[in-house]
# Entry
Amino acid sequence: MTATLSILSRILAAVLGGYALAAAFATLLAFTLPLARIDAVLVGLVANFLAYALAVLWCFATRTVWKAWAGTLLPASLFAAIAWAVGSPAAS
# Structure
């Protein structure tokens, strides 16, 4: 992979993968924190910014492009699956 494609892929991993990770993390916190619903949502939204910033840093700090993608999409998938399981009406 050329340097230009590597950088472009890392940018896409940071933007798209970071967004997926941050959104799934915020949703997971909103569903699982033992607070009032509005407080849990607000904590999730604030933590969303931290998760996104860390995901962007991860994408450019890791050695390979594959680790950048895996480091954002695998946790995002895990967070989304847990949030879906906890937040589904059958779980109530």
In short: The radius of gyration is 15 Å. The chain has a mean pLDDT of 92. Residues 11-91 form one domain. The chain has one domain: 11-91.
